[in-house]
UniProtKB/TrEMBL annotation:
Single Gene Ontology MF annotation: inositol-polyphosphate 5-phosphatase activity
Entries under InterPro entries matching the protein: Endo/exonu/phosph_ase_sf, IP5P_plant, IPPc
SUPFAM superfamilies: DNase I-like
Entry keywords, A to Z: Hydrolase
Pfam families, per the entry: Exo_endo_phos2 (PF22669)
Organism name: Punica granatum (Pomegranate)
Gene: LOC116214868
Record-linked Gene3D superfamilies: Endonuclease/exonuclease/phosphatase
Official protein name in the record: Type IV inositol polyphosphate 5-phosphatase 9
Domain Inositol polyphosphate-related phosphatase, residue spans: 55-391
Family recorded in the similarity comment: Belongs to the inositol polyphosphate 5-phosphatase family.
Biological process according to GO: phosphatidylinositol dephosphorylation
Length: 422
């Protein structure tokens, strides 16, 4: 019975590449390859004769291991998103352990109730009324400052996917969604037997105009003993090897994580601090972050090139994100009461956000203080340039009608096979 459950779970993960939730229709290019062939040929002609411009966008990325705790109905993410002061264009939310990692959840069917609840909370925060920008009416005598009203720019869920406790949800400004194409997912289980989803990754990719993006949300192997970092390295290597995306009808879309133009990896990477527990706790109490980071396993692996070769991480200026007593500001092992516990898990920066390649500039990297779980969330804000093509006047009139015709065909076909909306 148990082997049968394992095989069924593996097959569901392997065959569910397009089984995701979004506000947008799923990419159904395989349903009308003939139309896509002519459509892609037209686009190729446009690119050949047109000039390339650059547009700059802001991307908010967050990761949080919520320890199997369901979010309360009144959880407010507004301050965490910083949407009143500096709204981003794209929001990427990664979670780990949104459900307890019990045998039933690991081997059984996916329970989407919690992931849908997280999406409702995210949607409410993104669409919460906030002040509108000040408008300068030079011809009016009575000028007013900012006014309060509905969100001037809505957001839509581009793609979201759950694999056991790992969950990623990507949202974009509504006016950008028409330029987002080819959303796809790739799930890799690295847990029990090296294949189940209690550990592993859910990766999502899409094209924004002519630039490809890939976001990898992962939960790597745990363990604080010496040598456990090799298991995490192995998980990361398996994710890079086994993750794959459709190449598209013209075979011109990136199929592997590192083939994309912009790549961001977020999650509970589980790397620890390579010091005795008592030394780590003493340095944490004295807030000696630089000394601790000199012994951080992920930093060491990056420098030695054992894994994540070519990846970058912003400067860490915040306290370790793990491991706290729930609803507490106290780390495990840092009080007499907790020292009686059998589990001694020293503080560590388990929760990280890193990126690969050029084209991404990080402007923020910090942590939050919500006490929902034994982890604190981390966030980063990136600015990135996206390529867009503009028609020369000789092609604009002819091609615009043709391209809209093919897009209309795609929309009609997609409507018949669209994924469920939130």
């Amino acid at each position: 019975m148990w082997p049968k459950l394992v095989v069924n779970k593996f097959l569901r993960n392997s065959m569910g590449s397009n089984n995701f939730v979004a506000d947008l229709p799923a990419d159904c290019s395989s349903c009308f390859d003939d139309h896509n062939h002519e459509y892609s040929s037209l686009l190729a002609s446009v690119k050949h004769f047109n000039r390339t411009d650059q547009e700059t966008f802001e991307i908010f990325v967050s990761s949080w291991n919520v320890g199997g705790v369901a979010p309360p109905e009144d959880l407010d993410l507004e301050d965490w998103l910083n949407i009143r002061k500096s709204p981003a264009d794209i929001y990427v939310f990664g979670f780990q352990e949104i459900v307890p990692l019990s045998a039933g959840n690991v081997l059984g069917s996916e329970n989407s109730k919690i992931s849908l609840k997280w999406n409702r909370i995210i949607k409410a925060a993104l669409h919460k009324p906030r002040p509108l920008p000040t408008v300068d009416h030079s011809t009016e005598k009575d000028q007013q400052g900012s006014i309060t009203g509905d969100c001037p720019q809505g957001f839509q869920c581009v793609i979201s996917k759950q694999m056991v406790g790992i969950f990623i949800s990507v949202w974009a400004r509504s006016d950008l969604c028409k330029y987002i194409e080819h959303p796809n997912i790739s799930c890799v289980g690295c847990g029990i037997m090296g294949w189940l989803g209690n550990k592993g990754s859910v990766s999502v990719r899409f094209l924004l105009r002519e630039t490809s993006f890939c976001f990898v949300c992962s939960h790597l192997a745990s363990g604080g003993r010496e040598g456990d970092e090799r298991h995490r390295n192995s998980d990361a290597a398996e994710i890079l090897l086994r993750s794959g995306f459709p190449a598209g009808p013209q075979r011109n879309l990136p199929s592997k994580i590192l083939d994309h133009d912009r790549v961001i990896w977020l999650g509970d990477l589980n790397y620890r601090i390579h010091l005795p527990d008592s030394t780590t706790r003493a340095l944490v109490e004295r807030r000696k972050w630089n000394v601790l980071l000199e012994n951080d396993q992920l930093k060491a692996e990056l420098m030695k090139g054992r894994i994540f070769r070519g990846w970058q991480e912003g400067v860490i200026k915040f306290a370790p994100t793990y491991k706290y007593y729930p609803n507490s500001e106290v780390y495990y092992g840092c009080s007499e009461e907790i020292q009686k516990s059998k589990k001694f898990r020293a503080p560590a920066w388990c929760d990280r956000i890193i990126w690969f390649g050029e084209g991404l500039k990080q402007s923020l990297y910090d942590r939050g203080e919500c006490k929902l779980s034994d982890h604190r969330p981390v966030r980063a804000i990136f600015s990135t340039e996206v390529e867009s093509f503009h028609n020369s006047s000789g092609f604009k009139c002819f091609l615009s009608g043709r391209i809209e015709c093919f897009k209309s065909i795609k929309r009609t076909s997609s409507d018949e096979l669209s994924v469920a909306s939130l």
